[in-house]
Amino acid sequence: MSDLLEVRGLTKTYRRSRETIAALRGVDLTLAPGETLALVGNSGSGKTTLGRAIARLIEPDGGAIRFEGRDLLAMRGRELRAMRARLQIVFQEPLEAFNPRATVFRVIADPLRVHRLAGRAEMPEAVSRLLVRVGLEPALAARAVHEISGGQRQRVAIARAIATRPSLIVLDEPLSALDVSVRGRILALLDDLQAETGVAYLLITHDLGVANAVAGRITVIDGGSIVEEGPTKVVLADPQSAAARRLVAAVPRLHRRTEPARIGG
Amino acid sequence: MSGPLLLSVRGLGVRYRAEGQSVEALTGIDLDLHARERIAIIGESGSGKSTFGLALAGLLPRGSEVSGSIAWPGLGAAPKPGKDIGIVFQDPGSSLNPVLTVGEQVAEVCRTHLGMGWRRSYARAVELLDRVRLPSPEGIVRAYPHQLSGGQRQRVAIAMAIAGRPRLLIADEATSAIDTVVQAEIVGLIRELCSADALALLFITHDIALASGLVDRIAVFRAARMVEIGPAEEVVSAPSSPYTAALIDAHLGLDAA
Ligand SMILES: Nc1ncnc2c1ncn2[C@@H]1O[C@H](COP(=O)(O)OP(=O)(O)OP(=O)(O)O)[C@@H](O)[C@H]1O
Ligand SMILES: Nc1ncnc2c1ncn2[C@@H]1O[C@H](COP(=O)(O)OP(=O)(O)OP(=O)(O)O)[C@@H](O)[C@H]1O
Ligand SMILES: [Mg+2]
Ligand SMILES: [Mg+2]
Q: How does DSSP classify residue A139?
């Protein structure tokens, strides 16, 4: 099957007072339709920068991105707007992405309205259905975004992203504040949606347990370069790069009484 | 070992009012916290964990109804947020000022709460940014929050929270966007602060494995109530509530299939 997303030689350098930061140093990456690829790496390694460049929210300095066979970086105007329904992003910090005073209803209804996926009359029903899918009460729709909990906000962001039935969703730490029971439900939802619609996910996460549970393939970024890529089970069981080895070694483990005694301090 | 009693909560309840709805966020919470003691709060999304942190810090939004009592025998007076209590909010971006450099923000805490001069405050800011393992802190002090990655912003928020040498640190999902390597280092730093500076810790997290390696006691929240509290190892090895048991079973380790 041909690729859904193909990133070649992507570069991005930021300037910050007297420093320059090479956030992406020639990144290559491909994603097939219906695939889940985990993108992991240290804090500051360039994951969000890459995700935002793919979602056309920041302009890279160099390189190429093809999405559904077309040159993503050349898209303008109407073509670009139509693409936004097909390629959604869930932001790392949902509170920053939305106007905190906007209601939950508006946050979810906006993309449905803009892309003409629901008329005025069907809107309440469409919004309720999406809220229920992410495990939230429909009554939450009336609240402002700052009047719900952090994990509820993350789920509203996911409801908004799936609303337009995209073919690719960039998920930037989408589960970071969710307890395991809710997380399990969201992972199941993402799975069902993939089976139904064939959506692909680029899952940015620092949680190797989550990557292990849902992504068939994993790619490791370090200092703006991809340093390792392969089937998730293989990479996590036997990491080759120093970056991947460090991440795997530091995964917290449950401290039970039956484990050898640990002296705190 | 833990020290004298810092904080005593009895029968705490919180209700929010929003758009004509009244939301019961907490009910009947009792908790004693001692100096040097580290407690984790875990539990379901929406169960009231952040609300509990905000209530202790006196930062609940206007219009919320609070019942029960929060006493601070260890302080003698009502605590000042920033000075007596350091807080890392769940959404780190929202606690940082977008128009000040991160160095200015951390230094400002030292100036206001420790009475240091500007030059010393700024030097301490660099030192704190280094302690939370930010790379090249001399450069990062001059950055604005939006020029940092999510995990870097979280670490700035941690540096700000400990800058005023508080007696209690409330960390709400403070390491949720930080990779495992830095997470382990931050946990080490917090542990060190608790024993060296007699800091007490309220560590709100969804990560039960992370909690189990850091804290003395774990409290489990569900639907506005505290359903279980006990020594960390006991809660993890022999949970008394079925909800806690389910949380532990659902933990996604690397060895899980
Ligand atoms: N707008 C910006 N201006 C200057 N530097 C930036 C900007 N945004 C990010 N950076 C820097 O670029 C690098 C990559 O940042 P990015 O946000 O892509 O990292 P990340 O891998 O998503 O990290 P995290 O896991 O902490 O979210 C970091 O060193 C960061 O400080
Ligand atoms: N300002 C507010 N107005 C009205 N309701 C609120 C407000 N803030 C929170 N709530 C509600 O109160 C309940 C508890 O919220 P809280 O933020 O304490 O949960 P939490 O345990 O921290 O959840 P999470 O793990 O998702 O962060 C939730 O049902 C939430 O929707
Ligand atoms: Mg990021
Ligand atoms: Mg919370």
A: G
Taking alpha carbons only, the member of A216, A179, A115, A96 closest to residue B252 is A179
The count of domains in chain A is 2
Cα–Cα distance, B57 to B60 (Å, whole number): 8
Residues A184 and A237 in one domain: yes
Report yes or no on A91 lying in a domain. Answer: no
Q: Among partner residues B44, B236, B256, which is closest to A213 by beta-carbon distance?
A: B256
ipTM surpassing 0.85: yes
Looking at the complex, does the CB of residue A102 fall below 8 Å from at least one CB of chain B? no
- Note whether A133 and A264 are same-domain residues: no
Touching check for A241 and chain B: CB below 8 Å? no
> Domain range for residue A105?
98-165
Domain co-membership, A172 together with A81: yes
Q: What is the pLDDT of residues B81-129, one digit of tens each?
A: 888 999 998 887 778 999 999 999 999 999 999 999 999 999 999 999 9
Q: What is the pLDDT of residues A133-180, one digit of tens each?
A: 999 999 999 999 989 998 899 899 999 999 999 999 999 988 876 777
Tokens of B6: 């810092």
The dihedral region occupied by B95, where left means phi > 0, alpha psi between -120 and 50, and beta the remainder, is alpha
Asked whether residue A159 falls in the same domain as residue A174, the answer is: no
- Burial class of residue A59 in the structure, from the number of CB atoms within 10 Å of its CB (0-12 exposed, 13-18 middle, 19+ buried): exposed
Verify that A209 and A221 share a domain, yes or no.
yes
Same domain for A65 and A189, yes or no, is yes
